[in-house]
User: Fold this.
Amino acid sequence: MIRYFLACLSMIIALVASPSIAEQLEEQANELIDTALQSDLSWEILESLTTEVGPRLAGSPAEARARDWAVAKLSKLGFSNVHVEPFSMPGWERGNISIKVGEPYSQPLTGTALGKSVGTPVGGLNAEVVRFANYAELLTAKEGSLIGKIAFIDGEMVRTQDGAGYRLAGPRRWSGPYEAAKRGAIAVLIRSVGTDINSRTPHTGGTTYGDDAPRIPAAALSNPDADQLARLLAIKPGLTIHFTQTSRILTEVQSGNVVAEIPGSKFPDEVVLLGAHLDSWDNSTGAQDDGSGVAIVTAAAKIILDHGQPERTIRIVLFGAEEPGLIGARAYLKAHENNLDQIMMVTESDFGAGRVWRMDTGIAKTDEEKADRILAVLARLGVTKGLRTATGGPDVSVLSAAGTPAITLKQNGWNYFDIHHTPNDTLDKVDPEDLKQNTAVYAGFAWMVANIKGGFNRPQN
Amino acid sequence: MIRYFLACLSMIIALVASPSIAEQLEEQANELIDTALQSDLSWEILESLTTEVGPRLAGSPAEARARDWAVAKLSKLGFSNVHVEPFSMPGWERGNISIKVGEPYSQPLTGTALGKSVGTPVGGLNAEVVRFANYAELLTAKEGSLIGKIAFIDGEMVRTQDGAGYRLAGPRRWSGPYEAAKRGAIAVLIRSVGTDINSRTPHTGGTTYGDDAPRIPAAALSNPDADQLARLLAIKPGLTIHFTQTSRILTEVQSGNVVAEIPGSKFPDEVVLLGAHLDSWDNSTGAQDDGSGVAIVTAAAKIILDHGQPERTIRIVLFGAEEPGLIGARAYLKAHENNLDQIMMVTESDFGAGRVWRMDTGIAKTDEEKADRILAVLARLGVTKGLRTATGGPDVSVLSAAGTPAITLKQNGWNYFDIHHTPNDTLDKVDPEDLKQNTAVYAGFAWMVANIKGGFNRPQN
Assistant:
């Protein structure tokens, strides 16, 4: 009897002491999270990139230096299969800008070219300005009504945690120049798409022309300058502006995506893809957009690498040329479309370094339980359950649109658009503790996905 | 007995109902304060100047437009003796700037020329950078130790309410280029003298060369750019920078002081001088520096004008060319030095539009009781007793140094140096309620000084 009792007891102890495989997974993820919360690695990577490379415009020599930096950094950290996947793209340079209000209120306004904007004719252009309270109002303007004029597209931007304000205010930048050109405008000025209403730093960012309208020069005014122009137009409708911009589109230039891996021990052909983008706009060191993302996914993967091999492959992809319109992501899709099934999960860190507060899923309904299991681990870091729709992030949205499962680890974007695409996007804006939380979330997440039983299936369309 | 009692009663009633002359003065000042607290006039003046004129660099056509604006505005408001007192001065223009870090960390830094700085040779200069942790450290460098080098003068700036941090950090801008040139430097970069440590907007402001050293080009880096340069120099001492600046000093240009008065009813030759300066740096609309001052003293005087004639003359002086070094103030002194005794009090609003929180006095000891009487009236507006030393303000310090009594109505400068001399000094930074408090303080103050029995005597030296 005693023997039987002891046998039972030892069995119970064994069960308690050695957790199930499932419990082991959670335990390992928690260890990774603990390590990440103590690690300065993501900060060191971010400081190194933003200091040693600085601004890194897509397709520029500086972006090439960023790729060199990334290859050196990823190799030194011990990742496998570190390489560049090159592609070509149209280049662009910002040039100079001058926006001057005409008589009797002669004064300069502060603005910056929208990304990919053409320049003005040499010597600039001089024209009457017509203000639209917002993008929707521009759309009501009749064809031909703006012939020979400069359209000024005003409008507010709402501060939101999840970035919804960007989707509302963004169209005046994305499509405003095209829509104004269709109506005859010869140039466009927009109020910056940004929440820093007191800052004289205009927000750049890509615009997209259409084939059925001329490509006209477009620039963003800082918020206080947009206020000033609105006040001046209230005093004197029909005010003219002299606008000179030397931005130009260049012939084909080189860019590339930088890739590194931790090969999976059991399912090397099942890939968990962690994305971020290497390029920044030229006007800042891109600390939040997207130096932070580069630092977060790299440090998270390195912490996993030091901890032990995952069953599935973890692949870092540092995309090139995200800012001009996901050019690197499209090149990546094209290069990998024949083995896209190998990509079992995509996510990307490209919304700054505010704390991750929500997890959105773009996965098969039958896999939601697995996502909940991951979320349970991340809950201690303040991550809440989010939407059942997710692209994974800007670059990887190209992959999830092609069918891969995706999960978005949503950063707190409350302050993101204060400095987004402005010169103010520098290292000092990133909070080291928030960066650690991000790294911990990505480490825990990637470990869980790379080891969870059954993995993730393609969501139904 | 009843008759006697009634007589006494009527005497008491008379005493209560008609206050003494002294009490009347306080009552009138309080009425002015009440009016000012309800009035939008100072805001309207500030909005008009910053919108319709915009930036107004000393000696520029824009400053001339500001004088035209001021003459029109002061005349329309009904002041007497509105006129310009012209003077000439050396002009200056900022030109363009390019600061590029050399290999292997090639990247641009954001900076702006210091006011009155010369430019670099055409094509710029390329030289090793030597960092000094602060201005004091530069002063310890030996003569000849900086030959052929660019001195980078770093240093912090302490945030203070009374502007003391400016006096501590300011010397690297005021004298840094001169001191570096004496030691052989060929150019100077300073960390901006500003408290906005997260902003990519460099602070301009005048520097002064000496006759015994070459005039070398000098610029200020924004705080994050100074951080970046410090980090880069820590990685690679001996880093080079390519610095091009096209700023230049111009031949003699015109400026002027704009004057307006409310003539005194009893002592027209006793003048209470309310100063502010009309010029701003070229990089902003100068809302806080010193559009607010122009608005405050003009609105305060207008509220007095509408209320009734003061016994002494109240004179508004809107100085030209304060920023390049009190040039208008010196011209004013020169033009009026033969009748300086007529100026019975000077004060100036030139520290933004934060609430007035302290009154400092530079007056005869025997007049301190009068100052206390004024302070008692201003106490309801939150003005506290300050130092027994005061210059009255930057421009009027030239007059108080020559012997006039002075009182400084000290504005709260806690946030002043976040935007001081930067593009961010725009209308949106001024709080309308704070501006009203200022106007009320100046109105109550000016009325009291212009009517107080005995006036103010010259302080002893």
